[in-house]
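Retro notes, structure queue

What went well: the backlog is down to a handful. What didn't: a couple of records were mislabeled last round, so from now on we paste the full input next to the output in the thread. Example, using D-inositol 3-phosphate glycosyltransferase from Microbacterium marinilacus:
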Amino acid sequence: MGGRVLRHSAERHSAERHSAERYGVERHSADRRVARGEPVVALAHDYLTQRGGAERVALSMGRAFPGAPLYTTLYEPSQTFPEFGALDVRPSSLNRLSPLRRSHRLALPLLAHDVDAIRVDADVLLVSSSGWAHGMRSSGRKVVYCHAPARWLYQTQRYASGGSMRGAATRAAVATLGYGLRRWDREAARSADRYLVNSTVIQRAVRDVYGIEAEVVPPPAACRPAGEEDPDPTIEPGFLLVVARLLPYKNVDAVVRAAGLLGDVDVVVVGAGPDRDRLQSMAGPRVRFAGTVTDARLRWLYRHASALVAASYEDYGLAPLEAGAFGRPAIALRDGGFLDTVREGVSGVFFDTPEAEPIARAIERARATAWDAATIAAHADSFSEESFIDRLRTVVADVAGRTPLSAPAAPLAAPVPTPSPVPAPVATGDTAEIPVAA
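Corresponding output:
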């Protein structure tokens, strides 16, 4: 099929040990794994060019299987989580093209061909995918963890709405290539020996699109309270927090307008994306766009927020769990993955449509509620990384026909400390104009 053929075999373990030392990763030889009755595992992910929930899941997989190589199409370290630098990341030949590393959407016409050329020799290939990596070929068995059937392919108008050039280019590409890509995508999905999904919403979508019955394995909240915090002295506690990539379907503009209707709330928006310029042009002085932040800064923001606002259509509601780990309630759209991760009246409140007035009313309800931070944190803690890793290891062992893995996972976060009280929103009486993200 062209492109560089990538191989990972037991015969290459000696060379990989030297590569692992460069990455600082503890590795186990194939002989030791075989002696323990454990499968040789490799990992895969679509592309490592952004910082999102799917990339955090890929990091959790790396902790579940220390030393496993991670195959991907594109890898741009400056645009994704720095923790990938400690893994044995193996990008495809497309990675030589720097414009594609900076904007993976430009690679859309090339990715199916590129993924078809990747061959991985392993007992089990564990794939993290939302559209591409599930097409990688394995000499052994394949387990796919699906974040969502490709949004750009099956929900093009929602995913690529708006007037941006990138959105227009995506719509044009799907109009031209969509039929062939959908056929390729369905064949790729059916090549899996086991299909896992992150939520009941995606379970239904996988059934409808692929005709596959998948198991729900909720991913963990990755940004946990235990860890370094990086304060921002220019931000007063009590703000509403929005954490999302700045894309049209995230409905940041609706949150911006809701804040404008209330007039007495500060909003901090964490995230980057092609919609930023448009959103900033709408925003008033009480909305702050923080861009991409470190985990240390994000911890500080979660701890000092009064609540999270999540107005997007999400397949899995990760951000409410992260906020909840800090004892902060979520104000979320009653749709999609938030239905799995937000307990109304316990860990948050819902609004029914992503429009300014319903969001504003939900914010007011949340502000009037006496939240129990410890109860919120306990709910978030039920979605633990330990449980996620245990289930992945059991599935991999079952698919390989081996005994469950005995090696410990890479270190997890320390126990969650008792969260600090929920700060009240700051109300200064000033009029907020228009702000936010989601």
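Agreed that this is the format going forward. Reviewer comment attached to the example: The chain has two domains: 10-217, 239-379.
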